[in-house]
């Protein structure tokens, strides 16, 4: 994920976060099946489910309904300090469809962007579960991950993201005694931005130096962040797409503070916030991805990502990340780079990343944190599948689909990333014009467009052979 302060929950004041377990709403995980396949093509179905991240949930007193967090402010009588807050406040179950617009059917998952029910919810983040209490752990070395996606209703400023983060399988339940909720309630999130907007980290409230976000009525940042290596398999809307590994110099989910989080300098932290991205538009092919283009985003398609190792084993060093698409039965190889100073390539390798950083004049924090080998080590330990749809209060998603940064000429190498205007993606505009009423879900309004991301047909198989039929 490129900007800091990303993935911020924007629900109404009653929606907040905690570590104890409430009893007001039963927690029932939406089911989601997926497949494990052999290199020869035979597949076995797995019965899984998804869980909503703790950051989107209602936080209230353990013995009642009083909010522990309202707007972007903590109730200091209930939360005078981090430990007392964890004792007094409970994280409740979720109404997945009615409140959050999260629905599943078989091997299909749909996330609505804005849902207007009794309260207004914006965006969501969910994790794939192996059981009712543990996340599914993927070990991706020398493996291929495949899914179908429909981004036709995701416009400028929106991001339908699928990625892997090195979270703990139980969400920190066993390691932190004050965490009574665990993975069953979506705790333990981390990523390469070391997000400080999390209300609870390692079982304690993140209330120290909490500052409300001036751009959001419901979000803020605390003293601590939560860091881990991250592999962005898919960050996309209907205009642009990118896949990006982000290595970190820490093992697993790690709490940070100050410069460890990159608080005062973007590159002072323990993680690489930029990563090494492959965005076809940014890499010089402006006719590859979009409505009516080679990968036609007006209709569904299959995304294939292969994680190759140096010795073609599941214990080798990660050496290359390949991308392939399948649409209407046609296998589409990823676009080739067309940037001066970068060799022609359609995958992510160490050489590609070094050349790209030099050509674009970017800080090579990717190499500083160990590059692909570090990401591979994370894959070897196991990572959690994350899916979200979100807008960007830090940079309006311009880093994905427009010209960014905006204070340099768009003709400079690496600045142009998509066709969206630099005035697009303002969260207040996107959220107000793209809302969907829960009572008319699935129907397009004359005044409001339905923004949603739809994934289906998950497959995970030994790589790097591509199974070319449609999932």
TrEMBL record:
<dbReference type="InterPro" id="IPR037019">
    <property type="entry name" value="Glyco_hydro_7_sf"/>
</dbReference>
<dbReference type="InterPro" id="IPR013320">
    <property type="entry name" value="ConA-like_dom_sf"/>
</dbReference>
<comment type="similarity">
    <text>Belongs to the glycosyl hydrolase 7 (cellulase C) family.</text>
</comment>
<feature type="signal peptide">
    <location>
        <begin position="1"/>
        <end position="18"/>
    </location>
</feature>
<protein>
    <recommendedName>
        <fullName>Glucanase</fullName>
        <ecNumber>3.2.1.-</ecNumber>
    </recommendedName>
</protein>
<keyword id="KW-0326">Glycosidase</keyword>
<keyword id="KW-0136">Cellulose degradation</keyword>
<dbReference type="GO" id="GO:0030245">
    <property type="term" value="P:cellulose catabolic process"/>
</dbReference>
<keyword id="KW-0624">Polysaccharide degradation</keyword>
<keyword id="KW-0119">Carbohydrate metabolism</keyword>
<keyword id="KW-0378">Hydrolase</keyword>
<dbReference type="Pfam" id="PF00840">
    <property type="entry name" value="Glyco_hydro_7"/>
</dbReference>
<keyword id="KW-0732">Signal</keyword>
<dbReference type="GO" id="GO:0016162">
    <property type="term" value="F:cellulose 1,4-beta-cellobiosidase activity"/>
</dbReference>
<dbReference type="InterPro" id="IPR001722">
    <property type="entry name" value="Glyco_hydro_7"/>
</dbReference>
């Amino acid at each position: 994920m490129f900007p800091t302060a990303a993935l911020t929950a924007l629900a109404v004041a009653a929606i907040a976060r905690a570590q104890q377990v409430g009893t007001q709403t039963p927690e029932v995980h939406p089911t989601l099946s997926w497949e494990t396949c052999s290199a020869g093509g035979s597949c076995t179905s797995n019965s899984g489910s998804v869980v909503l991240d703790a950051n989107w949930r209602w936080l209230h007193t353990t013995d009642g309904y009083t909010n522990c967090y309202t707007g972007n402010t903590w109730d200091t009588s209930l939360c005078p300090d981090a430990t007392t807050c964890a004792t007094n406040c409970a994280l409740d179950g979720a109404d997945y469809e009615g409140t959050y617009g999260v629905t599943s059917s078989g091997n299909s998952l749909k996330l609505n962007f804005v849902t207007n029910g009794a309260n207004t919810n914006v965006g969501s983040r969910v994790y794939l579960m192996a059981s009712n209490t543990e996340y599914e752990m993927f070990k991706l070395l020398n493996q291929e991950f495949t899914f179908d996606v429909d981004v036709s209703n995701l416009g400028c400023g929106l991001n339908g993201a699928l990625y892997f983060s090195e979270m703990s399988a139980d969400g920190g339940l066993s390691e932190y005694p004050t965490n009574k909720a665990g993975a069953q309630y979506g705790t333990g999130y981390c990523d390469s931005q070391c997000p400080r907007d999390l209300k609870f980290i390692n079982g304690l409230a993140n209330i120290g130096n909490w500052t409300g976000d001036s751009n959001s009525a419901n979000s803020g940042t605390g003293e601590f962040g939560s860091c881990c290596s991250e592999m962005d398999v898919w960050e996309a809307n209907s205009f642009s797409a990118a896949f990006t590994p982000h290595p970190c110099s820490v093992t697993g989910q790690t709490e940070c503070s100050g410069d460890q989080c990159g608080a005062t300098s973007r590159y002072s932290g323990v993680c690489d916030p930029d990563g090494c991205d492959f965005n076809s538009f940014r890499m010089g092919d402006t006719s590859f991805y979009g409505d009516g283009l080679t990968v036609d985003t007006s209709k569904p398609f299959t995304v294939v990502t292969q994680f190759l190792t140096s010795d073609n084993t599941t214990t080798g060093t990660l050496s290359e990340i390949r991308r392939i698409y399948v649409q209407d039965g046609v296998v589409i190889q990823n676009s080739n780079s067309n940037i001066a100073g970068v060799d022609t390539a359609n995958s992510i390798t160490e050489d590609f990343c070094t050349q790209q950083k030099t050509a674009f004049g970017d800080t090579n924090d990717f190499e500083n944190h160990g590059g692909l080998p570090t990401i591979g080590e994370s894959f070897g330990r196991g990572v959690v599948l994350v899916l979200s749809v979100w807008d960007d209060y830090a940079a309006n998603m311009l880093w994905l689909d427009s010209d960014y940064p905006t204070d340099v000429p768009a003709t400079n190498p690496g600045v142009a990333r998509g066709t969206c205007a630099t005035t697009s993606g303002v969260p207040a505009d996107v959220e107000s014009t793209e809302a969907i009423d829960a009572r008319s879900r699935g129907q397009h309004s004359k005044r409001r467009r339905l923004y949603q991301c739809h994934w289906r047909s998950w497959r995970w198989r030994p790589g790097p052979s591509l199974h070319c039929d449609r999932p």
